[in-house]
Amino acid sequence: MIDPKVIRARFALLSPHLNERARRLLAASEARAAGYGGIAAVSRATGIAASTIGRGLLELDSVVPPEAGRVRRPGGGRKPLAMTEATLVGDLLALVSLSERGDPMSPLRWTCKSLRRLAAELAERGHRISHTVVGEVLKQQKFSLQGNRKTREGGSHPDRDAQFAHINDSVARALAEQQPVISVDTKKKELVGDFKNAGREWRQQGEPEEVRVHDFLIKELGRAVPYGIYDLAANAGWVSVGMDHDTAAFAVQTIRRLWHDTGSLRYPN
Q1: What is the pLDDT of residues 55-66, one digit of tens each?
Q2: What's this model's pTM, rounded to 2 decimal places?
Q3: What angle do CA 182, 228, 240 make, to 5 degrees?
Q4: What are phi and psi of 30, to 5 degrees?
């Protein structure tokens, strides 16, 4: 009768001090010592796959010692597809370029196509790739998952894709000519005063900062309106904070202040 508790205890004691090959050989030696049913019992006790224990048994019987410093045989494991297929990344980016959307940090950085659809289109171009690997490649190219968009009161403008393509082309052309390109965005407005927020700070236990129960506007203090500008070429930001309404005049004044303070120095021509 094989006692998995004893095997588990021995393996837990030695495993932290062993590399991958040594753990494999230890599991194989336990399976051989246990006799019939040993592979299954050791697999349950240690969590090591039965196939891995089987390879360990073959290594125990092998008369050829492994190369110094190696824990796996040469050639084990497959190189990433992005390394073996030179055109994969380019083809993927070409597919998503027509379906990308914008954010304030770069011209176009997310796609509305599903991973499975992209994998199918890549297969038509001769790439054998799964949708999970498509996701990994997109993450390597700085794409990310995005939240959904409200559309209950009407869909997107029919020229929305054309608008983003025009913006992307204009941005790329201006950056190539070393001309300034900025992204302007109104940030979340905040009430000014002792209101509750989601942040936390270190204080004595049982002494949280006391704030107002209701988030009613304090007329004397008003509301803060942060307006952010991002300079794509310089990778630099600028924020103006006003207390008036979010108006076009406020947006223009924010850009004007950025230009007078840093923009005209950064782009003298």
Answers
A1: 889 888 876 666
A2: 0.40
A3: 120
A4: -65, -40
